[in-house]
């Protein structure tokens, strides 16, 4: 009498049977990949966009326009900024004023920022961050956090304005401007180098905005779930020894001031931005 089931299974595990079994697994995996690929997220968003275009078309020209719209991956090539942004594969209505009231992701961009920073020259990630090449929402938005390329949100989005803009009028009173002033006010250069000036008691901050979350030291006792760069910086400013004992001065900053400095730090990246994409008065780099 043969023993338990496991023994019988072991008898079955001959090479031909195993190979056949592996083959079946492969087929299932391939089929799953094809099915997922056949229904990409962007396709649904673009179909919705096209449907709305057609429904709103009330003259021959707009009917033709709607008819010509092709559902396909859309991308902006930005050789000058060394990137390719595909955000518009889902955010298809971003430049279309008729989509102001449409739901995300097909809505018009808020404000008039894109009339100045046109998508064909600037793309999206230079301001928003995220993964420009990605064609799924999670991946593009840098989710789940922490991500190597997180998307900047809310007030922290101003960090990217500071990559190109100096203290022009538009930053007056912004977090970015407050952060820049606080940097001088607290005398951060007593210990840090920024561009060509400052000291070396602490790390050089010239490119700190390009540092990824996993390059910051989180200490051995941190058990929290937020490991974003924004969180590290803010916690560190409010208490330099938040994660591990630090010799950095504790300025006992308010949340407001700490966040303004975070915005400023985020603007200090090593991204190369060609002169023709820089405003006439760029940030001062003494
Ligand atoms: C595969 C589709 C898809 C791609 C690609 C995509 N998005 Fe989105 N996006 C969405 C959807 C759906 C929403 C609305 C739901 C939500 O808020 O996540 C959205 C919302 C947003 C929002 C507002 C909500 C928020 O999370 O702040 C921003 C900003 C945004 N996207 C920026 C971008 C940028 C920048 C890129 C390119 C790096 C991008 N998206 C690429 C689908 C996409
Ligand atoms: C010059 C910088 C800049 C560029 C370039 C830019 N954005 Fe924005 N975007 C912003 C800012 C700032 C806001 C928030 C504006 C506001 O709330 O008034 C915003 C808002 C948004 C929102 C709405 C977020 C919400 O919560 O409702 C979406 C979606 C979005 N952008 C997607 C894009 C996409 C897609 C591109 C590329 C085609 C792009 N942006 C290019 C700066 C930019
Ligand atoms: C890649 C560089 C770049 C980034 C990033 C950028 N801008 Fe600009 N911005 C420009 C250029 C170039 C102009 C054109 C004006 C000029 O040449 O002085 C401009 C013009 C402007 C203007 C019009 C002001 C004027 O003097 O005409 C505003 C307002 C503005 N940007 C706001 C923003 C905001 C807000 C952000 C961040 C969300 C931002 N910009 C991010 C490059 C940039
Ligand atoms: C007394 C000297 C001192 C002063 C003043 C000081 N720092 Fe620091 N800072 C340090 C040292 C030392 C470190 C490295 C140890 C650590 O991570 O805390 C550091 C780390 C940092 C880091 C992390 C950099 C990285 O690459 O990990 C940032 C960002 C920073 N400081 C910003 C500031 C800002 C902004 C100010 C002004 C508000 C400031 N520091 C003032 C000494 C100082």
Proportion of residues in helical segments: 25-40%
CATH topology of the largest domain: Cytochrome Bc1 Complex, Chain D, domain 2
In terms of per-residue confidence, which ranges show pLDDT below 50 for 5 or more consecutive residues? none
Number of strands: 4
- Specify the CATH class of the largest domain: Mainly Alpha
For the biggest sheet, the summary is:
2 strands, antiparallel
Principal-axis shape: flat
Q: From N to C, what is the helix and strand string? A: HHHHEEHHHHHHEEHH
Distance between the termini: 87 Å
Number of domains as seen in the coordinates: 2
What class, by secondary structure content? mainly alpha
Read across the widest sheet, the strand sequence of neighbours is 1-2
Let me know the average pLDDT.
92
